[in-house]
C-alpha cells in the first residue's frame, strides 16, 4: 500500500532551524580556526586567507572570532 508523503514541518517549524547571518559566520570561522589549529598553522596568514575563501568568509570575519574559537581548543 502506497502512502502519499505529507509535509510534517510547518513553515514556522522550518524557521526554527535557521540561524542568523552572524551565527553562520561564527560557525564558519570555527571551522577555519579548527582546521588551522589541527594543522598548527594558526599564525599562517596565507593559509588563513585560503581557508577563509573555502568557507566563504573574510579574514576580518575570521579574526573577529579567533580568540573565541582558539580558547575552545586548548
Please characterize this protein's 3D structure.
With about 70 residues, this protein is mainly alpha-helical. The chain has helices at about 10-15, 20-40, 45-55, 60-65, 65-74. Helix 2 (about 20-40) crosses helix 3. The mean pLDDT is about 90.
**C-alpha termini separation:** 55 Å
Strand and helix order: HHHHH
Report helical residue fraction.
55-70%
Helix/strand-derived category reads mainly alpha
Question: Could you list the spans in which at least 5 consecutive residues all have pLDDT below 50?
Answer: none
Please report the number of helical segments: 5
So what's the overall shape? elongated
How many strand units? Answer: 0
Provide the β-strand percentage band: under 5%
Largest sheet: none
Radius of gyration: 18 Å
Average residue pLDDT: 88
Amino acid at each position: 500500500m502506497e502512502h502519499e508523503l505529507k509535509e510534517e514541518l510547518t513553515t514556522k517549524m522550518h524557521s526554527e532551524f535557521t540561524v542568523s547571518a552572524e551565527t553562520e559566520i561564527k560557525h564558519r570561522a570555527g571551522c577555519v580556526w579548527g582546521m588551522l589549529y589541527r594543522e598548527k598553522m594558526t599564525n599562517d596568514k596565507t593559509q588563513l586567507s585560503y581557508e577563509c575563501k573555502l568557507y566563504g568568509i573574510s579574514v576580518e570575519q575570521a579574526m573577529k572570532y579567533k580568540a573565541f574559537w582558539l580558547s575552545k581548543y586548548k
